[in-house]
Design goal:
Elements (H helix, E strand, L loop, with lengths): L1 H18 L3 E5 L17 E2 L14 E4 L1 E7 L10 E3 L10 E4 L12 E9 L6 E2 L7 E4 L9 E3 L9 E2 L1 E2 L3 H6 L3 E4 L7 E5 L10 E3 L5 E3 L4 E6 L2 E3 L12 E6 L2 E3 L4 E6 L6 E3 L2 E5 L1 E6 L10 E3 L2 E5 L11 E6 L1 E7 L2 E3 L3 E7 L5 E7 L2 E3 L10 E7 L10 E4 L2 E3 L3 E4 L5 E5 L2 E3 L3 E5 L3 E7 L10 E4 L5 E9 L3 E16 L10 E4 L5 E11 L8 E6 L12 E3 L8 E2 L13 E4 L2 E12 L2 E5 L2 E3 L4 E5 L8 E5 L2 E3 L6 E3 L5 E2 L1 H6 L6 E2 L4 E2 L70 E4 L3 E5 L10 E8 L5 H8 L4 E2 L2 E5 L11 E11 L4 E11 L27 E3 L11
Parallel strand pairs: 1-2, 1-3, 3-6, 4-7, 5-16, 6-17, 7-18, 12-13, 17-19, 18-20, 19-22, 20-23, 21-24, 22-25, 23-26, 24-27, 25-28, 26-29, 27-30, 28-31, 29-32, 30-33, 31-34, 32-35, 33-36, 34-37, 35-38, 36-39, 37-51, 38-52, 39-53, 51-54, 52-55, 53-56, 54-58, 55-59, 60-66, 64-67
Antiparallel strand pairs: 7-15, 8-9, 9-14, 10-11, 10-15, 13-14, 40-43, 40-50, 41-42, 41-49, 42-43, 43-46, 43-48, 44-45, 44-47, 45-46, 49-50, 56-57, 61-64, 62-63, 62-65, 65-66
Length: 865
């Protein structure tokens, strides 16, 4: 009883605290807002820096209204002048919420716009540049990012100009709205021409150090319906916030990474936002064996990432993932970025159970070394952490170097995707070496340097999948040098050394003394290293880290790793395992129901070694067009056409036995993509119902319920090619004056549903009979009933009418069935009263219709020809 009381009390407290959640308001600095205590719009806090978070409680909402631009008035505390420190919520129902859609409360309240850029108003001021008309100069007081400078002519509107970077003062003079600097550190000179070549004072916003909502390592915070210009991140690298939701907001003009998400920052949701103009957009960055997990990055519009000259880089990810598990990346639109959704695993990292679905990726660029891949996975060559459960489906990639690239050694399930106008449609090219062992007397750990028991070769363990008595791991080559004469100082693992004769830099990875000592200057032993390039020779001396700290004479050459099954693995001279399998490890790709259209070089490129430990299982796909070198399996000698690929036989490979080469026939392939029109299949497309059934949850690419999953491509055709089944029921015999019921309820279409039941006589001459009974030459309805009138007064002959039922499903397909009706002449029979309320003939619809009942005069003379 006591326990129940406290449970009820806790529930009451929770409900009460939620019910008492308060609204708070902040408006731009410098206004006159009544009490300025945040209690209402009229009494709003005067600027973001004046928010009193002590009074804001979990469950409360802060409304940000108006345009917020920080004016820096002192040279002290650059990093914190515009910062406000957000309080933490305590649970899903008691989040701290920061909203910008003030107009949803009152149409007269302006929505919230927050600038991370700032107006500098304490330095020496702007002066005209001598000899350059319309050019103004300013001495930078703090270091600046080299790209973003903005001109704001009216602080009450969100109208501004992004100044263009130029290479000289002369170019700034020639183009309004531009800037130039020889450097961007404090003390350097910035040159600007405004859009009207006028004085920039009070009009130029500098990158960074403006307003920033800092959440530190807090949790349960939501940002909604805000605009952030020159966005300043909510957290720093050493902080680990969790359960953060960022929704339906705009983030423009970032620097290196708009949203870096580090280890431990789990349960992040970035939903329904516009994210643009940064070096990377969303990037989970991991420095450990794992990474951020339980994330949801969905329905965002991400564009122009890694495009501007300063921001170009080898990643330029729209969504980049390093390690972690249980993620959802769904429904995003990506354009003009270096990659679409991309998963990467370092050695030892797990990266598993991620769903990448229904994303549209277009125009994936190569600027700054970006890899121009639409959707894909990549690993360090020796990565061997678990990568199971990753699925990629219903994605569309257009105009990329590689549409889909997959490198993980665990199965990657790739189905119902589309790739259009890419150099390579489906690509994979990873090979690494691995060992399986048993009989270990000690645990083999990552980074262990192991020596062969038979040939003294070295290998460095890179990533362990299993360890202990039995297990497996990948490894990288180490090369070995023997030294005989010591030096004046100790050589350590990680030291860099340069050979005097070759000048080649290498790094010591494993060192073993076999005799002597460093202190005695007579040390002898072996050095193992990862050889980059060049060669060391016998009797060579080398320096360490560019100095002469150690001088050694080499008395042996390096040895290439050649491990064989059955030999012993040694660590520090002691046996730790026996090798059972030595071979190559490659990717595992299972691809179903995908379309690759107009690939520039290859529809499929699977250039990977390790046949015994790589798997390509592709089937029920569609390619167009074919070509003599459009498919490559294993190596360049394997270039072939589609039939050649199908005929290729490799152990563990399934190479498209049920696939075809033909045009999938889309309704629309517009470059101006819309989710409602593009890449829909036409009725006569041969990919409808041609795939292997797959199971997914949720709706189709635009959220419609999925009826069936047997088409090829990223969108199910809304209706089946299987016609309905019509059933007009058994033949009937009725008397004049009886009720005649036409019953088509036995008809069926379990996939699409029946839209219409239509009854009509086979013989056009009998249309008048149907008119006499039902009031029309054809009748609509699943079940229709009417009284048969005395249509042939005094005639003893029976009348036989054959009526056809035509059922049409919601996809427009039809089927027919007939019923023979014999009407017997009974001239003295009184009319029967049909059941139900009299109505007119029914019409078809999306489901079963009520019975249709008609009444007619009991006496009607009809000539039957």
């Amino acid at each position: 009883m006591i326990r129940s009381f406290f449970t009820a009390l806790a529930l009451l407290i929770t409900i009460t605290s939620t019910a008492l959640a308060a609204d708070w308001w902040v408006r731009p600095a410098g206004g006159d807002y009544g009490l300025e205590n945040g209690s209402s719009y009229e009494n709003a806090w005067d600027g973001i820096h004046n928010i009193d978070w002590a009074g804001i409680n979990p469950g409360d909402t802060l409304w940000v209204s108006g345009i917020h631009i920080h004016e820096m008035t002192t040279g002290e505390g650059f990093a914190s002048q515009g910062a406000t420190f957000v309080k933490s919520g305590t649970g899903e129902n008691t989040r701290i919420t920061i909203r910008g859609d003030a107009s949803s409360v009152n149409a007269n309240y302006p929505d919230g716009i927050v600038w991370g850029a700032f107006l500098e108003n304490y330095g020496p001021g702007w002066t005209e540049t001598a000899g350059h008309t319309g050019v103004w100069e300013y001495t930078l007081q703090i270091g600046q990012y080299e790209d973003w400078f903005f001109e704001v002519n009216n602080f009450n509107t969100n109208q501004f100009t992004v100044l263009e970077k130029k290479a000289s003062i002369d170019e700034v003079e020639d183009q309004a709205g531009s800037f130039y600097a020889t450097g961007f550190s404090a003390g350097d000179t910035l040159y600007v021409s405004t859009t009207d070549f006028g004085n920039p004072t009070g009009r130029i916003l500098f990158n960074g150090k403006g307003y920033q909502f800092r959440i530190a390592s807090n949790s349960y915070i939501t940002f909604r319906n805000l605009i952030f210009n020159n966005f300043q991140q909510f957290w720093f690298t050493n902080q680990t916030p969790t359960h953060i939701r960022i929704q339906n907001s705009t983030f423009l003009y970032g620097c290196s990474i708009m949203f870096p998400i580090y280890d431990g920052m789990d349960y992040f949701e970035i939903l329904d936002n516009e994210i643009a103009w940064a070096g990377n957009a969303i990037y989970t960055i991991s420095s450990t064996d794992n990474g951020a997990s339980y994330y949801n990055f969905s329905r965002n519009n991400i564009h122009d990432i890694g495009v501007r000259e300063v921001q170009q880089n080898g990643d330029a990810h729209s969504i980049g993932i390093q390690g972690g598990h249980d993620g959802v990346i769904e429904g995003n639109t990506v354009e003009n970025c270096g990659t679409g959704p991309f998963l990467y695993a370092f050695p030892r990292q797990e990266l598993k159970d991620v769903t990448v679905a229904r994303n549209y990726v277009r125009n994936v660029h190569l600027l700054g070394g970006a890899n121009s891949t639409g959707v894909g996975t990549q690993s360090a060559s020796s990565a061997y952490g678990e990568k199971t459960g990753n699925k990629f489906y219903y994605n569309i990639v257009v105009d990329a170097k590689i549409c889909y690239r997959f490198q993980f050694e665990d199965e990657q399930l790739v189905f119902n995707n589309i790739g259009v106008n890419c150099d390579e449609g489906l690509s994979s090219s990873r090979t690494t070496e691995y060992m399986e062992f048993d009989g270990a007397s000690a645990t083999i750990a990552a980074k262990d340097a192991l020596e062969s028991g038979t040939n003294s070769a070295f290998a460095r363990v890179a990533a362990v999948r299993q360890s202990g008595a039995t297990g497996s791991f990948t490894y990288g080559h180490l090369h070995q040098l023997n030294f005989t004469s010591g030096g004046p100082a100790e050589l350590l693992e990680g030291d860099n050394f340069i050979g005097d004769s070759s000048g080649i830099l290498n790094t010591a990875r494993f060192i073993r003394l076999t005799s002597g000592s460093w202190a005695g200057g007579d040390a002898a032993g072996m050095i193992a290293f990862n050889k980059e390039s060049g060669n060391f020779v016998d009797n060579e001396t080398f320096s360490v880290d560019g100095g002469q700290a150690n001088i050694f004479t080499m008395d042996g050459n390096r040895y290439q790793n050649e491990f064989v099954v059955g030999e012993a693995l040694l660590r520090d001279g002691g046996q730790v395992a026996t090798l059972q399998v030595v071979g190559h490890l490659g990717p595992h790709v299972k691809a179903r129901n995908n379309i690759f259209l107009n690939s520039g070089t290859y529809h499929v490129k699977f250039a990977t070694g390790g046949e015994e430990k790589s798997h390509l299982d592709i089937n029920h796909n569609r390619y167009y067009p074919d070509g003599p070198e459009m498919f490559m399996i294993k190596n360049s000698a394997g270039k072939t056409d589609f039939a050649g690929m199908q005929a290729t036989s490799l152990w563990g490979y399934v190479l498209d036995p049920n696939s075809m080469v033909n045009d999938p026939l889309f309704e629309n392939e517009s470059n101006n993509y819309t989710a409602s029109t593009d890449f829909k299949l036409t009725r006569n497309s041969t990919v409808i119902d041609a795939g292997e059934a797959q199971t997914v949850t949720g709706g189709d690419f635009v959220g419609n319920p999925i009826i069936h999953l047997t088409d090829i491509g990223a969108r199910e055709f809304p209706y089946s090619t299987v016609a309905p089944t019509a059933d007009a029921g058994p033949d009937q015999t009725v008397n004049e004056g009886d009720v005649l019921t036409l019953d088509g309820s036995g008809s069926s279409d379990t996939i699409d549903g029946i839209a219409e039941w239509r009854w009509a006589p086979i013989n056009p001459a009998h249309q008048e009979i149907l008119e006499a009974v039902f009031g029309g030459s054809s009748v609509l309805g699943e079940t229709v009933s009417a009284v048969v009138p005395n249509i042939i007064l005094g005639r003893a002959d029976d009348l036989i009418v054959v009526v056809q039922l035509t059922v049409t499903d919601n996809g427009g397909l039809t089927d027919t069935d007939t019923i023979t009706i014999t009407i017997r002449d009974t001239p003295d029979a009184p009319p029967a009263v049909p059941p139900g309320t009299p109505t007119t003939a029914g019409s078809g619809g999306g489901g079963a219709t009520p019975s249709v009942t008609t009444t007619n005069p009991s006496c009607f003379i009809l000539s039957v020809l």
